[in-house]
Structure formats: C-alpha cells, structure tokens
Amino acid sequence: xxxxxxxxxxxxxxxxxxxxxxxxxxxxxxxxxxxxxxxxxxxxxxxxxxxxxxxxxxxxxxxxxxxxxxxxxxxxxxxxxxxxxxxxxxxxxxxxxxxxxxxxxxxxxxxxxxxxxxxxxxxxxxxxxxxxxxxxxxxxxxxxxxxxxxxxxxxxxxxxxxxxxxxxxxxxxxxxxxxxxxxxxxxxxxxxxxxxxxxxxxxxxxxxxxxxxxxxxxxxxxxxxxxxxxxxxxxxxxxxxxxxxxxxxxxxxxxxxxxxxxxxxxxxxxxxxxxxxxxxxxxxxxxxxxxxxxxxxxxxxxxxxxxxxxxxxxxxxxxxxxxxxxxxxxxxxxxxxxxxxxxxxxxxxxxxxxxxxxxxxxxxxxxx
Length: 368
Known about the structure:
Layout: E1 2-6, H1 10-19, E2 25-30, E3 42-45, H2 51-59, E4 63-66, H3 73-80, H4 89-95, H5 98-107, E5 115-118, H6 121-131, E6 135-139, E7 149-152, H7 158-165, E8 170-174, E9 180-188, E10 194-196, E11 200-205, E12 208-214, H8 221-238, E13 242-252, E14 258-266, H9 276-279, H10 284-293, E15 305-312, H11 318-322, E16 327-331, E17 341-349, H12 352-366
Parallel strand pairs: 1-2, 1-4, 2-3
Antiparallel strand pairs: 5-8, 6-7, 6-8, 9-10, 9-11, 9-13, 11-12, 12-15, 13-14, 15-17, 16-17
C-alpha cells in the first residue's frame, strides 16, 4: 500500500516511521529536497498548489493524507478526484478559518470564548464594545505557534492591534482566564469507529508548545467524557477519518464548576500527541494510518505516565539526554535556528511523580 503525504515535515517523518513496520510505502509532496521526510519516503518535488505535481503525486499513491493544516483546500479536492483523501477536505476548510472553526464549534453546542468577525477598523471598535477588553485579535487564517495574534489589554490598544494585523480578515476573541490548557486526541476510522487518548495538559511559552503531560493530572471521568463528547460531535459533523486534536481552555463556570472552552482544532496528528510513541499502546501516528487505510484501530491505553518536552532552537547533547532513565529523544533532521522545533524528548515512567522527576532532569538540558 502506497501512502501519500502532502508535506514533508516532522509529522510526516513520524508517520512514515510508524508505517514501515506495517509494510507501508510512502511518497510525499514537498517543495524542498532537504525536508525532514526526505530520507524516509519517495519525494515528489513540487508546490502544494502545483496542479501537475499533484497529478503526478496522485498517480503514484493509493491513499492521501497531510501533515499540516494549511494545505490548499483546492489541492486536497484535486487529489480527491483521483485517490481517497483523509481527513476529508471539509476538515481543512473548517480548521483553516478561525471564524468558521468557532462557528462550527458553537453550532455543535461546544462552548467557545465570545467572538466576532472583524473586517474593518470600525468593526474592531464594535466588536470591542460587545466583547470588551482584554481580548485577542487574531488573523482568521494561517496563524500558528502564536503568530498572527495581538492581545488588546484595553480599548486604547485597538489602534496598535489594527496597525499590526489590519488588512487581513480577522476575528476578535474574548480573553479567557483559564486554569490550564488541555487537548484531546481522537481517532475515527473509515467505518465510523472512534477511540480517544486521555486528556493531555499543555504548557506554552511565546505561543509555542513546550511541555505536555499525559495523562493530564486531576482529570475526572466526567471531564474526559465531556471532551470525548465534544470531539465526537466534530468527527461526525465532518465525516472525519484519521486523528483529530482539539485544544481546550479549562476554566470555571459561574457556579465554580469546571468547563471546557474549545480554542482550536488540528485536522492531523498533533504535537501534544507525540508522547504516544512510547507512552501509549498504539501511537497517534500508527492509529492515523490504521484509520485512513480502513484497518482496525489500536488501543489508546497509556503505558504509565509521560512528559513530552519540545526541543526548540538549539540541538541538545544526545549523550546527556540518553543518560536520563526513561528518556527518549527524537530529532527531526532540521538545521537549528531560534524558535524552530528541532525534535522532542519523551520521558515515560510508571508513576506521575517519577515521570515529572525525569522531565525535571531533561528540561535544563534543553534550555542550555
């Protein structure tokens, strides 16, 4: 079976590594010869919106998927005319536009922060009058790792926010006082079967995910079930096949109870699920492949406790990481540069305390 992946980054690399034991072959559509996936798959050099490259690519694969969410929807639909494409292009269309994404969540009964479309300077003032400050002004498209965002602490900041982001379609969202950020990873097969990984606690700095803990501490069965219910609604609405990640804010409601507010979704394998390679019975990468190929889904049961730490900007000393019991280093074959994700380390242990202690040993090795 020949699996085509649009994009040759680290997520595609880890998909290929998960697929080779299953006897799968991979081809990636990628404009750069030195992409992280280049040594693990046949390379179809071409832009993601190059119609001729897409046709060549489609002729050499049996099923297509993608490893980042900014694939052109038109490109995914062109591929779909020749081979099955999973997740379906409608998932890309929803996830690529924050306004469409938030509207879909709201239609499905999934709580979200208050939001409003902003298409002009006057619309920004009107949105602030309704939503209030603090609020976050965001580009509707192509924002990731904290890019394309401006926090409006007070109404007087509106001019600076508009100067920074004006000219593109925008969305204003209420600023959420949250306790922590959580994500749920769900997987849905071709026959509609679903499975879920436990909720993960995520910590960001400068808009970039730094640390994930799995399972997240202090998660009640009711909160896990709530996250799964919300994810199921999205999976069914989109006719989804593959791994889906939804990021939530955990906050308090007016009565002091816990609630989940959906922040955004990613129609692909996700950084907060990298721990599953060592920390779950079946990794998110293998389960994504099982789903898109119509194979039975694998168990998502965690193997003890895991902490995943991203390697950002500077390559670590491999020997020092390897000296930490339970630590597993994954490097993506990228050249170091500030703010770039170069790899990750997952530490796994039988207890949450032991996993955290090992992570505390690893963290200084990643921060110079």
